[in-house]
Amino acid sequence: MRADFVVRCRRSASRLGGAFAGLMACASLCAAPAAFACEPADAALSGRYVSAAADSAASSDKSLQLNKDGSFRLLGVPVQGADFSGCWQRSDDIVVLVEGAAIDGEGIKRALPEPLTQADLKAVRTDGIDTLEQAVDAGLLPLGRQWANQLRRAGETVRVSVYEPRVGLAVGDAKGMLRLADGTVIEQAPTPGEDGQFEFASLPARAVVTAIGVRFPEQPDQPRWLTVSDPTKRLYLIEFDARALGAVQGGFITLSRRADGSLTSDFPDATRFKRAP
Fold it and tell me: Which of 7, 102, 232, 234 is close enough to 244 for a disulfide, judged by CB 3.0 to 4.6 Å?
């Protein structure tokens, strides 16, 4: 993660008196990519492929990773820099790439970045920066990695950050929800001016969060819930899959397998992929 980007996110949060403005962007950089449930595919075709144009001056940075578990990742197609991922299967000489299935079947999943360590502190330690808290406050280490792994103390605000990890689609007029151990459900509108950011500041001192919910504007009568089994945290990072929520259309790409083992896309631009060494 670029240090200058983290600094901008942390300073933005500081201007709101400790609120986490800009945290959605920070979270998307430190969270793991979404996982897809796929059927195992043809192991003989699995591997990494690169655009046949990559050896020329017109290199397009297009690459395709076909995994044995049936998942794939395609970079640079159809939009430069986009991460197009999901499941693939072979049928004779045709390979079909289908955008990923819904995250965990509900369209949302929790992302839990690795906690900060003394090794992280050592990498940024300087005059006046002797603790992890000081490094985070100075914008030298990502705020999300600290709060997402930090236990909520009595009376502290619980925050939920909902974001789309692939291309950064806006959450829109969604509502965040918490279910507490006593069965209480609390619904909250987003922090003004901060897409997908929710603050729950008036919880009982010893409230225990047992589930995180999101009510998306595309399906307001079908709130999505994730069960929480670990002790209540200060921050929950929630990824969402816009396709599963009906916010965007899914898609697929077909590729034809040639005699030399390369793959040629039938859409959108007839890119030819050759197996990487």
Answer: 102
